[in-house]
């Protein structure tokens, strides 16, 4: 399921249940933008599974899909950072590690039955993702554009 609805700013304190892709989040690099869209789609799928019936197996599946894809995406971004000697690599990688811990923590808590994932949990995660895209990934994209222009 693809997320739908109006774009929601990451700074609101209100629950974020669905979000549409905002062209302001475009990095100009189709692989990164497509991966960001896919992350939002997986978050949307997780939200739908919780809203529709909270079916544990569906939530398990969506959490696993989300955690796996977030990791793949971060590896892709970090590879680009290394290739282009991105000066913000350390801070950006630390931010990625924090997101990995968050999504894997949600997954572990859910799978072990310690805590079922809620829309509030997912909303908090989504706000963090949107903030990351709007700030850190925007800075990375500017670096990638500068690096691309300076290559022979």
- Element order, helices and strands? HHHH
The total beta strand count reads 0
Low-confidence stretches: 1-15
Give the second-level CATH assignment, the architecture: Up-down Bundle
What integer is the average pLDDT? 85
Helical content, roughly? over 70%
Beta-strand share of residues: under 5%
How is this structure best described in words?
The relative contact order is 0.16. It contains four helices and no strands. Mean pLDDT is 85; it is low at 1-15. The chain has helices spanning 30-52, 56-83, 89-112, 119-150. It has a single domain (29-150), classed as Hemerythrin-like (Four Helix Bundle (Hemerythrin (Met), subunit A), Up-down Bundle), CATH 1.20.120.50. Helix 2 runs antiparallel to helix 3 and helix 3 packs antiparallel against helix 4. With 152 residues, it is mainly α.
Task: Give a quick rundown of the structure.
With 152 residues, the chain is mainly α.
């Amino acid at each position: 399921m693809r997320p739908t609805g109006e774009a929601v700013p990451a700074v609101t304190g209100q629950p974020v249940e669905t979000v549409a892709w905002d062209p302001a989040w475009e990095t100009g690099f189709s692989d990164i933008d497509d991966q960001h869209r896919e992350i939002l789609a997986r978050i949307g799928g997780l939200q739908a599974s919780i809203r529709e019936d909270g079916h544990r197996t569906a939530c398990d599946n969506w959490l696993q899909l989300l955690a796996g894809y977030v990791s793949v995406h971060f590896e892709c971004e970090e590879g680009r950072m290394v290739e282009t000697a991105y000066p913000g690599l350390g801070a950006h990688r630390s931010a990625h590690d924090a997101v990995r811990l968050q999504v894997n923590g949600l997954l572990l808590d859910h799978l072990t039955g310690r805590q079922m994932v809620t829309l509030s949990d997912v909303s908090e995660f989504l706000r963090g993702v949107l903030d990351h895209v709007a700030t850190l990934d925007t800075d990375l994209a500017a670096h990638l554009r500068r690096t691309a222009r300076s290559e022979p």
